[in-house]
Q: What sequence folds into this?
């Protein structure tokens, strides 16, 4: 097998891992928002529904970490392929910036705001006095609103990344 052909096979592998990662990252969130959340709140009360969704997002966040690894590894692999003689494999600057931003946003949620939101949610569920409960829920929803906005922002970035990648493929095919 010639070297360019072998490199091309590696490029196909990298692209496959990238698209798999993007499908899990963006598609997972779309399914949670469009299907799971409405089903949970139409089936359970607020507290059991909130706990269920906390576990759902914990699982989603683990899947996002795997997606990050797949996509980051594929980007590194494409950079290596470009240096090894396959220039069309080189990731674009826009692609790298969008992916890096997605990683930073996701890590902010996973490592900082998500755990803080869970703690505040548990405090709200544990509060028995009405005034304490209102205060706890207000604190929870303040952080939860930011977390929700960051998830949606990352979804938009993921869709944008798909568009950038498709545009890049179309330019290389022309």
A:
């Amino acid at each position: 097998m010639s070297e360019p052909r072998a490199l091309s096979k590696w490029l196909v592998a990298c692209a496959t891992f990238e698209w798999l990662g993007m499908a899990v990252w963006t598609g997972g969130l779309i399914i949670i928002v469009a299907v799971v959340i409405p089903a949970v709140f139409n089936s359970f009360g607020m507290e059991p529904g909130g706990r269920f969704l906390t576990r759902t997002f914990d699982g989603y966040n683990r899947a996002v970490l795997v997606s990050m690894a797949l996509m980051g590894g594929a980007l590194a692999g494409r950079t290596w392929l470009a240096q090894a003689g396959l220039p069309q494999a080189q990731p674009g600057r826009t692609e790298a910036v969008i992916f890096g931003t997605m990683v930073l946003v996701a890590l902010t949620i996973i490592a900082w705001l998500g755990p803080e939101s869970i703690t505040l949610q548990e405090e709200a569920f544990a509060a028995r006095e009405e005034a304490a409960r209102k205060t706890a829920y207000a604190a929870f929803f303040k952080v939860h609103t930011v977390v929700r906005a960051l998830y949606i922002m990352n979804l938009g970035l993921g869709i944008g990344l798909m568009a950038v990648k498709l545009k890049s493929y179309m330019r290389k095919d022309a």
Notes: The chain has one domain: 3-173. The CA atoms of residues 106 and 112 lie 10 Å apart. Residues 3-173 form a domain with the Four Helix Bundle (Hemerythrin (Met), subunit A) fold (CATH 1.20.120). The chain has a mean pLDDT of 95.
